Known about the structure:
The longest helix has 23 residues, at 317-339. It is built from 13 helices and 11 strands. The relative contact order is 0.14. The strands form 3 sheets. Strands 3, 4, 8, 9, 10 and 11 form a 6-stranded antiparallel β-sheet that branches. Strands 5-6-7 form a 3-stranded antiparallel β-sheet. A two-stranded antiparallel ribbon has the order 1-2. It is 49% helix and 18% strand. It folds into 3 domains: 7-81, Arc Repressor Mutant, subunit A; 89-130 and 225-339, Beta-Lactamase; 137-223, Heat-inducible transcription repressor hrca homolog, domain 3 (Enolase-like, domain 1).
Amino acid sequence: MVEELTCRQQTILGIVVREYVRTVRPVGSKTVVESYGLRVSPATVRNEMAFLEEQGYLTHLHTSAGRIPTEKGYHYFVERLMEETALSPAEQRMIRHQFYQVKMDLGEWLKLAAAILARNVLAVSIVSPPKVKRGRFKQLELIPVQGTMVLVVLVLHGGVVLQRMVSVEQPIAAEELRRMSGYLTEAMSGLEVVPIRASLGNLPPVEAFFVKEAADMMSELESRRTGLYRDGLSNILAQPEYVESENVRQVISLLESDAFLANLLEEAAPQSGVHILIGGEGRWRELSECSLVLARYGIPSSSTGSLGVLGPLRMPYARAVCSVRYVSEVLNELVNQFFGVAD
């Protein structure tokens, strides 16, 4: 349970956190008074900082008179003192423009999301693809485009929509494509990819061609469960906390472990909103010197992924939170717009 601090103690703790995040230097009482115009003496500030240190919110390095935040101090800051912020309208417009400039491909969106988060927060970004249950066939639409080109639109139970442009040997009339769409929808409804592939030998060649394309799309969707998108390793390695070789090895080992990161994202990401994980919080020893800001995106009823930024405990939390929140909102819109329908 978080203790109640006086208004002055909260103010001083907030100043120490913000100054240390900004400067990476221990914060002394003189800095607190002069830089922030507190109407108290440095001696009073020193007494309050000593109290905050006794309570575990601050600590000091060596014989330095300045203090730095502890994990407990960062927790109190993000829970009680951090101001809610948002990305500027110009930043939001730029991010949306970047997303709509790339092709309509989930992998491209996730790669871009990782790049934007790493740049915005100057941390390492981690983005997981949507984790889906085994797809079950719901509906197939075959739409003539031009000449021998046909758009195959596959709807799965749970609201996922997949589409692919294919080429057939000869043009097929729109009426015939509608007939095949209805027939294949009825024949394959409710089936998973394995029985769908098993049925190919019982279908006429043209129908079998379209069903095979649908099965391939389902298999590709399930394969997206693995693989993470990362960006910004150079950002975190440039932080003073990771100058020591042992700390560098620890963070690189952490970032190289796909299995650990995938499980971490799945377990720690909230169902809604943004979650801040500081120092592993007793569950993840590997994060003892790191903080992680996480959110989910996707279609809650069928498939969701996670995204976040990882950095030192001395993270610009407000900036991280608003960046993660906004990018997750944009991904939500894109994924729902192009891949989601009501079940």
